[in-house]
């Protein structure tokens, strides 16, 4: 009752003042949260439709893939299928062009489903995981404070078999079993199979079945065109009473498509056969080529029937990332999770005062102090080449400033001069702020440094 009466007390401030302050607070919050996740994504992905479609950095290769499929299909439909339909006659003749167009449309649909969806990206951690006493090593730091280092691997049990999982320094997490970090997209992907340059996307848990449908339907389309081009040449030779050579001269498109589909079918057909083997044994391409499970049983193999059911009939897990969610620079974890880019003056002040994480403007490699535990967040290979030097002024350089490519059609170099100048100003202000913090806390061995769950640049 005593606590409840506190809320019933009438505020001494006028209602107009309260409404003005609440509206101004809401306006400032809305002004700060001006970014969405897909706009500040740390991976190298490209997005379309406001973050609803996610592609790899090599998404432009989809145009080439579609051209390699649809161009011969258009030639077959226009110059072979309708002529063959007249030679075959009704009712079977009309099915030849209709089947070709239906399979071609299905092929493009599964290609988009493979390329334009989240393959199973594991969200990054804002800070390294807490080290366990059993597997962490302790070494004295320069200032006398203890320094914990996480082990590179951990052992987990999968169906009674020990499987080693690795620690990812870029995403600051222990990868789940069958997860791997894609160097092309710069993301940890669940059940990582491979990065396919033909579809411009990683192949993982959430798009593997569509990838298999794509290569299998492409194989079927190649064999379909190859077979009916031969049928067209055979019926043409019989109708004209000439040999196959004269029939090829009468229908040169059929001869071209026979050679084209013969070469293509070996490639996509072999790929389909290989992935059929992987599906039946419940392996990934990455596991097959790197580990091959030599000397031990595959812990994920549950039999051919169960493996096929797991790939094609199990529900697809939802994405772990909301690419359209709004991100506020005032969030203390924002700098570790996202690339915020140039911010307004109000956002910069809010970011510097509320959070003590390093602002990764120049893709520099910093060390984070987390509750007296010093862990390196990334290496130079993760964030680019960083110039040497012991001073803090050498660790932030405006010359290495770069914007991520988050548009499937756009690329670097399209920013205006005003944006570049603002970015330089932000980086210069960041360097001055970091230098002041370094001079303030650098005098003693950890004296006066913030404690608790705050980060600081060291």
From TrEMBL:
It is found in: Membrane. GO terms for cellular component: membrane. It is a multi-pass membrane protein. Its EC number is 2.3.1.225. It comes from Urochloa decumbens. Residues 166-290 form the Palmitoyltransferase DHHC domain. Residues 1-12 have a biased composition (Basic residues). The keyword Plastid does not apply. The DHHC domain is required for palmitoyltransferase activity. Pfam families: DHHC. Keywords: Acyltransferase, Membrane, Transferase, Transmembrane, Transmembrane helix. Its main location: membrane. The chain crosses the membrane at residues 62-82, 94-114, 210-235, 255-280. Residues 1-20, 121-147 are annotated as: Disordered. One of its GO terms (molecular function) is protein-cysteine S-palmitoyltransferase activity. InterPro entries: Palmitoyltrfase_DHHC, PFA4/ZDH16/20/ERF2-like. It is an enzyme of class 2 (transferase). This is S-acyltransferase. Belongs to the DHHC palmitoyltransferase family. It catalyses: L-cysteinyl-[protein] + hexadecanoyl-CoA = S-hexadecanoyl-L-cysteinyl-[protein] + CoA.
């Amino acid at each position: 009752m005593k606590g409840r009466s506190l809320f019933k007390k009438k505020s001494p401030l006028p209602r107009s003042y309260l409404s003005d302050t609440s509206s101004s607070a809401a306006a400032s919050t809305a002004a700060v949260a001006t970014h969405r996740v897909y706009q500040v994504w740390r991976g190298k992905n490209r997005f379309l439709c406001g973050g609803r479609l996610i592609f790899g950095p090599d998404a432009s290769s989809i145009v080439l893939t579609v051209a390699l499929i649809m161009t011969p299909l258009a030639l077959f439909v226009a110059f072979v299928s309708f002529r063959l339909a007249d030679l075959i006659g009704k009712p079977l003749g009309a099915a030849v062009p209709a089947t070709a167009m239906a399979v071609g449309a299905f092929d493009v649909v599964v290609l988009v489903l493979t390329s334009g969806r989240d393959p199973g990206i594991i969200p990054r951690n804002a800070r390294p995981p807490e080290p366990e006493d059993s597997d962490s090593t302790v070494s004295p730091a320069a200032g006398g404070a203890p320094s914990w280092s996480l082990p590179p691997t951990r052992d987990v049990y999968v169906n009674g078999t020990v499987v080693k999982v690795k620690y990812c320094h870029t995403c600051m997490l222990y990868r789940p079993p069958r997860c791997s970090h894609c160097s092309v997209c710069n993301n940890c992907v669940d059940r990582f199979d491979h990065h396919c340059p033909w579809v411009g996307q990683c192949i993982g848990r959430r798009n593997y079945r569509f990838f298999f449908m794509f290569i299998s339907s492409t194989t079927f389309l190649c064999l379909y065109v190859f077979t009916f081009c031969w049928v067209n040449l055979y019926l043409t030779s019989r109708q004209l009473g000439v040999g196959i050579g004269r029939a090829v001269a009468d229908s040169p498109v059929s001869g071209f498509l026979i050679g084209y589909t013969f070469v293509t079918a070996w490639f996509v057909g072999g790929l389909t056969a290989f992935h059929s083997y992987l599906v039946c044994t419940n392996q990934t391409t990455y596991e097959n080529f790197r580990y091959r499970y030599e000397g031990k049983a595959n812990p994920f193999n549950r039999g051919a029937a169960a493996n096929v059911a797991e790939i094609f009939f199990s529900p697809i897990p939802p994405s772990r990332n909301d690419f359209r969610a709004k991100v506020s620079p005032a969030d203390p974890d924002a700098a570790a999770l996202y690339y915020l880019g140039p911010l307004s003056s109000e956002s910069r002040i809010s970011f510097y005062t509320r959070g003590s994480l390093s602002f990764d403007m120049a893709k520099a490699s910093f060390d984070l102090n987390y509750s007296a535990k010093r862990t390196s967040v990334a290496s130079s290979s993760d964030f680019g080449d960083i110039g040497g030097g012991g001073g803090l002024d050498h660790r932030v350089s405006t010359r290495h400033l770069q914007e991520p490519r988050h548009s499937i059609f756009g690329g670097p170099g399209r920013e205006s001069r005003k944006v570049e100048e603002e970015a330089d100003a932000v980086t210069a202000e960041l360097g001055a702020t970091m230098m002041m913090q370094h001079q303030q806390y650098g005098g003693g061995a950890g004296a006066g440094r913030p404690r608790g769950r705050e980060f600081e640049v060291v």
